[in-house]
Structure formats: structure tokens, C-alpha cells
Amino acid sequence: MEYIRVNDLDDPLFAGLHRLMSEIFPPEEVLAFELWREPLRDPGIRVFVAVHAGEVVGATEYRYYPEDDIAMTDFTIIGRPGLGIGPFLAKRREADLQSLAAAAGGTLSGMFAEIYDPYRSGDHEFGGVKPMDPFVRREVLAHLGYRRLDFAYVHPSWQGDGEAVGGLDLCFLPYRETPSLPGPFVAKFLRAYYSVLEPKPAQWTEMVQALERRSGVDLLPL
């Protein structure tokens, strides 16, 4: 299996990636094909695909924020069972992030991720691929060390319609043991991460403003 970066909309691998995203994720989580052109060119956004026998069978997108020594996993897609795609992507992503942190003179302190809560919303089929089942994914990420931030989370729809998307938790994988994160730190990250997505729903703005007033946000078990 190959781990290949995609940074051009015209790369044939991107068509396979976008098709996989559209099969796996609900529409409000998928940016339209043409709108990917600029994000793919952004050197800070890292999009990699797992290629097996010439076919895109998995993918991950993530980014590193050197000023805060943190990362964000945008998504991880496992397109087929039985190929070891999940561990393959996780190990390659980890190695790349550690390399980025070292090159920036930092040490990766943790990674954010949005994780579906199937106990609140059980209507996501994720393309019928069992490794992508939200119950399975949640338990795997819990085993990896991710913890849930203690607040009601929404994010702006990637369809750009100003709607708030719920049914997820914002989680954090700390590389150094800590019981909480400062509220303004979480708010700063969210403002940076969603800076390019407009319009923002009022519910999201109110959530971020509330975080800015909190001294700390507890990290709870998944």
C-alpha cells in the first residue's frame, strides 16, 4: 500500500478520494469537488490517500499548527475492511506530524478531532463500510487516547449554508497528561480552523464566545 499526498484537483487520485468521501460521509460533511482546489494548494493542509492496486482505498486529511504545537485530524476514511488501512494511515500520519513539528522546532502536544456520537445520533451508515461504523470508530479512538471536551459541540456545515451541524463531540488526544484545556485555547483553535467557512451559524458563534469565557474545559472519557 502507498501513502501519497494529493495537492492538485486535477490529480486523478483526487477524483477517487472525493468519490470515497461522498460514499462514506453525509452531504453536510463533504466540501463540493470544485471547492477543493484552493485547500489542496494550501501547504498547511495535508491530504493523503492510501492506494492499493492502483485504487484509492483510504484517505486522511490533517494539519499542524506550529504556533500552538497542535494538530487537527480533519478526517480518516477506511474504504475497505481487511487491508489494515486504519493502522497504515494512523502510523504514516503520526510520522509526518512528528516530522513537521521537529522541522518547526516544536514538540507535538496533542491533536483535535471531531468524533461522531452514535449514542445521540445513530442514523449514519457511512457507506455501509463496517470499519467506519461510528460505534467502532469511537471505541478505536478511545483506545488511542482521545478524550471528549466537556461542552455541547456544533460546527458550521461544509455546504456553506450557515447551518449548525451537531451529533459530534470535539475531542483531543493529549501527548502530555492533562485533565483539561483552557477555554480560550479551544476557542482560538476553532476560530482558526473554521476561518474560511462562511457564513457561521449563530449557535457556533455563541458556543465559541462561551468557550472564551471559560477558564478550563474538562477532558472526559469517550
Structure description:
This protein is α+β, with helices and mostly antiparallel strands and 222 residues long. It has six helices and eleven strands. It has a single domain (2-220), classed as Aminopeptidase, CATH 3.40.630. 32% of the residues lie in helices and 27% in strands. The strands form two sheets. A nine-stranded mixed beta sheet has the order 1-2-3-4-5-9-6-11-10, sandwiched between helices. Strands 7-8 form a two-stranded antiparallel sheet. It is globular and about 50 Å long.
Please name the defining characteristics of this protein:
222 residues; alpha+beta; Aminopeptidase; nine-stranded mixed sheet; two-stranded antiparallel sheet; 32% helix; globular
SSE layout and pairing:
Layout: E1 2-5, H1 12-24, H2 37-41, E2 45-52, E3 55-65, E4 70-78, H3 85-103, E5 110-116, H4 134-144, E6 147-149, E7 155-156, E8 164-165, E9 168-174, E10 180-181, H5 183-193, H6 202-212, E11 217-220
Parallel strand pairs: 4-5
Antiparallel strand pairs: 1-2, 2-3, 3-4, 5-9, 6-9, 6-11, 7-8, 10-11
Helix pairs in contact: 5-6
N-to-C series of helices and strands: EHHEEEHEHEEEEEHHE
Q: How many domains make up the coordinates?
A: 1
Return the structural class: alpha+beta
Give the spatial strand order of the biggest sheet.
1-2-3-4-5-9-6-11-10
Mean pLDDT, rounded to whole units? 92
Task: Specify the overall morphology.
Answer: globular
Discrete helix count: 6
CATH T-level fold name: Aminopeptidase
